[in-house]
Amino acid sequence: MTVRARAHGKIILAGEHAVVYGCPAIACPLEIGVKAGFERSGSALRLNVDGAEISGEIASPLAEAFRLLRAEAANLGVGGRLLAGSESPPGFGLGWSASFSLAASRALLGGGEAVENQALELAARLEQVFHGRASGIDLRTAASATPLRFRRTADGVEVISFQPEKPIHAVLAGQKPSLTRDMVEQVRQFRDQAPEEVERIFLAIAKLVPRAEAYFRLGLVDELGLTLTANHALLRKLKVSTPELDELTERALSAGAAGAKLTGAGGGGCIIAVASEERIPAIHSALEKQAPFVRSVRLGAAFAQPA
Ligand code: PMV
Fold it and tell me: N or C: which end of the chain has fewer CB within 10 A?
């Protein structure tokens, strides 16, 4: 018998990076994530991701995650074959690692509500392997059916889920992958070198987040767009954007987007552009000329496919 599980991908609408240091952020689950299947057998755990067998012997975050899963399986006294399949591209800021971590943990532990807390706990340890000093926002969003506001607090995290009045139309576009842990480390070093400058940027980002949330909840796409574009300018000051990401945001704005920003860690990965529905096809085709990954999505819409 195969135990099947899924977890959502995600986008960060506002507040990335600052969220690692206690500022709030708004994230939204995406229907595309990672699916996993676990076929139990007598042998030690094996892991296959997108058709490739993962060796636990090499130095890579995925191999390290596999070693953790293998140890967990041995502790549980189970073995077999864990198959993971990506619906979203890894490294594009769409929460692949959190989605993989949660889908794999759910499948290994048997799936269902009864093991959900245990799966979240194991997934958090896996996510730490991929992300280093992660805020935990990706994992919470991978497990959520609705958008949420997330904040790290002294004694844990505060997560407020909400359902917007209507979905917001958006286009995601990405050119090349990047490593979240490297970008988080880059921001940490920048903060060590220029603490006041970075605190000012974080404070400005933290002021935008409640506005982004309110506009998202009310379906006010023009106001939301301006807020996202302002957030992108601050992420540029934080030095996590790239000329390619800036160009994609410019292209989206020229094609009629209400606003655009990089989403996630930056250094590569994706931008998100929001717009009224009738402008989406033009933005989609403008971005397709420049980016190999382009996807039109509806943020805050109910999913056809549950996690
Ligand atoms: O996984 P990404 O690329 O969406 O980045 C996660 C968001 C960061 O704020 C950059 C890191 C974190 O753990 O919150």
Answer: N
Q: What is the CATH number of the domain that holds 130?
A: 3.30.230.10
Q: Write the CATH number for 186.
A: 3.30.70.890
Tell me the catalytic residues: 138
Domain residues for the domain of 270 are 168-299
In terms of residues, how long is the chain?
307
Q: Best mutation site among 13, 17, 127, 263 for ligand 1, i.e. most ligand atoms within 8 A of its Cβ?
A: 17
Task: Tell me the best of 13, 26, 180, 270 to mutate to test the pocket of ligand 1, counting ligand atoms within 8 Å of each CB and taking the most.
Answer: 180
Which residue bears the tokens 């995925």? 62
- Write down the pLDDT at residue 131: 84
Complete DSSP assignment for 135-202: -SHHHHHHT-SS-EEEEEETTEEEEEE---SSPEEEEEEESS---HHHHHHHHHHHHHH-HHHHHHHH
268: left (phi over 0), alpha (psi -120 to 50) or beta: left
Residue whose token pair is 């139309």: 169
Retrieve residue 206's tokens.
């933290």
Taking the centre of ligand 1 as the mean of its atom positions, its distance from the CA of residue 118, in whole angstroms, is: 23
The answer, yes or no, to whether residue 72 has pLDDT greater than 90, is yes
Q: Which atom of ligand 1 is nearest to the CA of 16?
A: 9
- When mean pLDDT is compared over 59-63, 129-133, 229-233, the highest value belongs to 229-233
Tokens of 59: 């130095």
Is the same domain home to 6 and 144? yes
Give 222's pLDDT tier (boundaries 50, 70, 90).
very high
